[in-house]
Amino acid sequence: MDTPADSSTDEPLDRTATDRAAAGRDRDEEGRARNARPRDGLGRPLPYGADGVPRQPEGVVRAPDETVAEAQRLLDAGRPFHAHEVFEDAWKSGPDEERELWRGLAQLAVGLTHAARGNVTGGARLLRRGAGAVGAWAASGAGRQRPYGMALGPVAGWARELADDVEDGVAVDAAARAPRLRG
Question: 54 in the Ramachandran plot: left (φ > 0), alpha (ψ -120 to 50) or beta?
């Protein structure tokens, strides 16, 4: 593959993360878009150079019990955006029959993120979508009511109740309203 050239000098460009940020889009070593900006506890991008919370590494393959424990730790700390990334890793790396479970849990975490950010429509919509996915998975032949110790019925109920509160204008503190995955 040819290295891109600077059109003004026809010199090859050797871009570092700083150069990519200056050019407007961060990219990883394979050229995929990656946002390297620091983020706050709810995943909102901060200016380059600002102090943010540690990023959740992407693409980590964990045992299901480790996924649940790590996601719960992040939820309890008021970091649902980061918990969603843990669920997303499980969704992408887990067995096919569990993908809808992990995707639904990721949607719940993103719904809590949006609710805590004050996004009423997005928060309520994702909380309900995630509750539906988790409930449907538990009710399906592939699903179980308490996979990896999670109490899916109460988790779905938590999400629906929170969606109602968000639509009623209740401000959401992500840590205070975090679900108890294992009941």
Answer: beta
pTM value? 0.80
- Residue 21's CB is within 10 A of a number of other CB atoms, namely 17
For residue 169, pLDDT over 60 is answered with yes
CA dihedral 160, 164, 166, 172 (to 10 degrees): -60
**Those residues with Cβ within 8 angstroms of residue 55's Cβ, 6 or more apart along the chain or in another chain:** 38, 39, 82
CA distance 81 to 35: 14
Which runs of E-coded beta strand occur in the chain? 5-6, 11-12
For residue 80, give the H/E element and its range: helix 80-93
Q: Are 14 and 29 in contact (CB under 8 A)?
A: no
Question: What is the tens place of the pLDDT at every residue in 26-35?
Answer: 776 777 656 6
Instruction: Report residue 71 as tokens.
Output: 């996601």
Whether 163 and 177 have beta carbons less than 8 Å apart is answered as no
pLDDT of residue 57: 83
Q: Let me know if 50 is exposed, middle or buried by CB neighbors in 10 A (0-12, 13-18, 19+).
A: exposed
